[in-house]
Specification:
Layout: H1 4-19, H2 27-37, E1 40-41, H3 42-45, E2 51-60, E3 65-68, E4 70-71, E5 85-89, E6 92-102, E7 105-110, E8 121-126, H4 128-147, E9 152-156, E10 162-167, H5 175-187, E11 192-198, H6 199-204, E12 222-228, E13 232-235, E14 250-258, E15 262-269
């Protein structure tokens, strides 16, 4: 499905040219600027979208980089790795090696640009095995955060193992107790939902922010929250599963001391 922005901006540009014919040669450039400003992150509304249609709105040939008008590829941020997969056009298939964020834009790093051009329609396909594992891991870290009432100083999501670092100078974290509690939350099958609030609301409720050194991402003065039943609510721009039982059995790995104040909790999934 092509996002409605494409249709709307086409109409705007066509109408503008009817009123000001001298701008006809600039119509495509105006359309491209509007489209870049309105890049749609499809994963915000549907993290389970494995395949999508879009158009190429930018190409950086020197670095094999592509920008799409709308995308389901998640860009590396918040400790979650960027998606990989493929971008296909008629007769052409290229590999997406990584997805990053630059200047608030989502950029795909690909293996070969081949003969791709701007404004060409594409089909993007997510490496679903990798993405779904990251979604399960990311949601599991939210559960971990809900159990440990300490400030978060760092974290990383991985395919095999993920971690959160806590400000724990008094060594409060107990591995066996933690593993029992987090798996009970998984089994209780809490619903995972998202909502958007004004950034001013977050200023009134600073306790929602668990990270000690990283500010939540804002878009046009709004912040996305992830709610897990009635047990956790915090700002997050990542991808998550719809319910906690999708995570599966969680194993708490090694708990490491990282300096005088920090303790690192490693987390693994059964499959």
């Amino acid at each position: 499905m092509i996002n409605n922005n494409y249709i709307i901006y086409k109409i705007i540009c066509s109408t503008f040219v009817l009123i000001y014919p001298e701008w006809e040669k600039s119509q495509y450039n105006i359309f491209k600027i509007l489209l870049k400003k309105a890049m749609t992150k499809l994963f915000d509304d549907d993290a389970y979208l494995k395949e999508f249609k879009s158009k190429i709105t930018g190409i950086i040939k020197e670095d094999n980089r592509i920008e799409l008008g709308q995308t389901a590829f998640y860009a590396k941020s918040g400790g979650q790795p960027g998606d990989i997969g493929t971008i296909e056009t008629e007769g052409t298939k290229i590999q997406v090696l990584d997805t990053i964020k630059e200047n608030n834009k989502i950029i795909n790093i690909v293996d070969d640009l081949k003969n791709l051009e701007e404004n060409v329609g594409i089909i993007g396909k997510i490496n679903w095995d990798l993405r779904y594992k990251h979604m399960r891991m990311h949601t599991a870290l939210h559960l971990l955060c809900s159990i440990v009432p300490l400030g978060v100083t760092g974290g990383q999501i991985g395919y095999e193992k993920s971690r959160l670092d806590f400000n724990d100078p008094d060594k409060q974290i107990n591995k066996e107790e933690l593993e029992e509690k987090i798996n009970l939350l998984v089994e209780d099958n809490h619903t995972v939902t998202s909502e958007v609030i004004e950034s001013s609301i977050l200023e009134e409720k600073p306790e929602l922010v668990r990270t000690m050194s990283v500010k939540p991402p804002q878009v046009d003065g709004k912040i996305r929250l992830i709610r897990i039943g009635d047990i956790d609510l915090q700002p997050c721009g990542g991808t998550h599963v719809k319910s906690t039982n999708e995570i599966g059995k969680i194993q708490i790995g090694k708990i490491e001391n990282k300096g005088k104040m920090n303790r690192r909790v490693n987390l693994l999934l059964s499959s």
